[in-house]
Amino acid sequence: VNHLGVCIGCTETAALSTHVGFDAYQLATTQAFPIDPLTCLLTTETFPINGCDFESFLDGLDAFLNEQYWRCPAYDAQDVMDSIFDNNPIEAWITIKDLCTNAWDQVPTSTFEDIDSRFTDDFMEQYIDGDTFLNHETGTFQGTEEGENIANFRSDEAITTVL
Asked: Which of 34, 55, 110, 120 has the most CB within a 10 Å radius?
């Protein structure tokens, strides 16, 4: 019984060789199937970035693509961005800038008074000028009430707010 063989990915130069049951074709040459860089990043995917500017975004996207290297082995973050923004780096930069601006607008804010009720805006201006009890009396803040307040703020609100 003769059966026609099927060769997926073969070129015209594939050579026929007989085989029991089926005609088989030896794969003479291979071809790389192009992957569109647009498919490397789905619109619903997220990835962490360290900072919020264009370079940080590219670094984060590169790390994401490296972690999932099988999805997009031929492209890096710049290739993907070029594809998404039709090779328009200014549009890409503006878009990332706008995304970052919008993201920062969503982050809760805190004030110096959240650290210590005595740290009003006027007080902090005087502190910057070097003329408060913090400048003259506390030294390193170690072992002081103010130091404790700063340490507590650092481990609580400083992580999730913009000061």
From this structure: 110
**Contacts with 39 (C-beta within 8 Å, 6 or more apart), sequence order:** 71, 72
* Interval 99-110: pLDDT, tens: 988 988 888 889
pTM higher than the cut 0.70: no
Both tokens of residue 117?
A: 């009720």
Nearest to 68 by CA among 99, 46, 95, 53: 46
Cα radius of gyration rounded to whole Å, the chain: 30
Residue 62: what pLDDT? 95
CB 124 within 8 A of CB 118: no
Torsion angle in degrees (nearest 10) through CA of 79, 84, 85, 89: -30
CB atoms within 10 A of CB 116: 17
Taken as a whole, the chain contains a residue count of 163
Can you say how many angstroms the Cα of residue 47 is from the centroid of all Cα atoms in its chain? Answer: 5
Q: How far apart are CA 91 and CA 82, in angstroms?
A: 10
Span 53-76, pLDDT tens digits: 999 999 999 999 999 888 888 889
pLDDT score for 24:
60
